Amino acid sequence: MLSELYKSEITTIAIRFFRHYSCKIHIYFENCDRQNSTFGVLIEEKLRKNRNPIGQLFKESCSICTDLCTLTKYPDEEISITPIRIADQIVAYLVMQSGMKNEQRDETLELIDSQLDLCKSTIEIKLQSLELERLYHETLDELQIFLQTTSDVFVLINKEDVIETTSQTFSSINEEKLNVVGLNISTLMYSKDWERLKKDKVIEEVELLVNKGKATVSLRTIKSNDVTISYLIQILMDKGTVKKPIAKQTLYTFQQIKGTSHSIQKTIEKAQRVANSDSSILLRGESGTGKEIFAQAIHHGSNRSKRPFIALNCAAIPESLLESELFGHVKGAFTGSHTTRVGRFELANGGTLFLDEIGDLSPSLQAKLLRVVQERRIEKVGDNQSTPVDVRIITATHQNLEQLVQVGKFRKDLYYRLNVIPIVIPPLRDRREDIPILIEYFMKNLSKQAGKKPKRISKEVLEILLNNNWSGNIRELQNVVHHFVQLEIGELVTQKSLPTYLKDEIQSQIQLQPNHKRIYRTQSNENKEEILRLLDEFGRDTLGKKRVAKSLNISLPTLYRKLNKLRIK
């Protein structure tokens, strides 16, 4: 399913390209609800003439934006159709309706067709850029999980040679106690050594500037679609250079889950009640809502808190390696297994194992996981001996597991074993009153990490952030605040300080709704109308306002703040 951000980009670019032409431009998004079969036939016939693949596009009727009936009134009109692709997959169609009959056609049609091709290329380049950015953030999230648990020293460098993050063990070699995150790699090593490392991948006796010691440094280039997005370097200090302390595991607690909304407080309360049990927990929620933070808080609040918390994203590791990652392997189990390896279950023995994106587990691994859940014993790959483990399992997914069970993609018996206590984490758009709290929290922490003074948010920006859809949820909000902290040179964050994609999205919303000065004003008016309707229905006394708050799924104090803000008496 194409995200709203991608749809917005396609629509905005198409409007810009054809706003000065007499033709009409329509956009058909793949996999949308289909209602108008007449237009579907027109596209199908056009594609067949051009011998373009149709795929599953028209197995049902189709729909497109408004005013499509004009296409059937003028059958002699020139209609040009071009597909929009991401990674060779069609995600949308641009349909140009010339508005000219046979006697009106001239060289203008060639110009419009050229414009359509240029528009298609521009859209695909923009979508490719957005996709790379999305993949980069997903990769960064996975690396963050790895860097929290590894005992080795790692540093993640972005493609601009800026230190993105470090493993917790980096502090063991950082005698200067520098906060290197956000600084150039030259803070860690000399530029000549860095350039040589990118070329040779491994160099010995590198002088580190954070402790003047010598180290062997190796580099791995992280790519997406053959494009370099970052570098991961591992640092191994020469023996005797530095004494390496044991890194202490740092976990989130329930107190660090920010928000006063009714929905998040209810979720926290449920998680706290079950934290001290050994029951399996299934965390449900969209990507970016903070499922791992809840898992860490549950572990921290349990009687296993002094034991390990081990996390693994089942979608981030190839299936061929995932079994070994989960259960470990013995020496010689397969080509390249030169030593015996301990798996995540054994590492988490006595503690908690968090398995994210459990819905992506293959059927064969589902069967093996079910056996472990039932018997509390594991078998390493290549071993015929079983090993007992005492592990509490917390799983998470953004998928509809019930639907996967129905279509046979997820085992029903495993689903019931894991879904003993389901906890649903609300998306950010359903707890908008928490946005100012989260902004303040991220601003304070990220400013401290960057060694900067926290900035103030202008009223205009706050309203935009309050009314943004936040398809990426809290993770997206944190990235936006990170953008403010790193790039805003003034003390006040204004609309100019917003990330480019957010500014473009706001502008496209304004263009699509020209009768409104600002999209967030429109949404505020809609909220006001909804509250007024509920007040008229339930009454304006205290009891009536309690019912209104319950209908809106917010607390009574939050309702009073909204009434005051919207000037409702």
Number of strands: 19
Give the strand order of the largest sheet, numbering strands 1, 2, ... along the chain: 5-4-8-7-6
Instruction: Assess the beta-strand content as a share of residues.
Output: 15-25%
Class computed from helices, strands and strand pairing:
alpha/beta
Poorly predicted spans: 32-39, 50-76, 240-248, 514-526
What is the overall number of helices?
A: 19
Report the end-to-end length measured between terminal Cα atoms.
Answer: 42 Å
The largest sheet is: 5 strands, antiparallel
Entry keywords:
42% helix; globular; 19 helices; alpha/beta; five-stranded parallel beta sheet; 569 residues; five-stranded antiparallel beta sheet
Write a brief structural summary.
It is built from 19 helices and 19 strands.
Notes on the structure:
The strands form 6 sheets. The protein has a 5-stranded antiparallel β-sheet with strand order 5-4-8-7-6, with helices on both faces. α14 (459-467) crosses α17 (519-538). It is globular, with a radius of gyration of 28 Å. Helix content is 42%, strand content 17%. The protein is built from 19 helices and 19 strands. It starts with a helix and ends with a helix. By secondary structure, it is of the alpha/beta class.
List the helices and strands and how they pair.
Blueprint (H helix, E strand, L loop, with lengths): L3 H15 L5 E6 L7 H13 L20 H4 L5 E8 L2 E9 L9 H43 L3 E6 L4 E4 L24 H10 L1 E6 L6 E11 L2 E11 L24 H13 L6 E4 L6 H10 L8 E5 L5 H9 E2 L11 E2 L1 H4 L4 E5 L6 H13 L1 E3 L6 E3 L3 E6 L3 H6 L5 H7 L2 E4 L10 H16 L5 E2 L1 H9 L5 H15 L4 E2 L6 H13 L6 H20 L3 H11 L3 H10 L4
Helix pairs in contact: 1-4, 1-16, 13-15, 14-17, 17-18
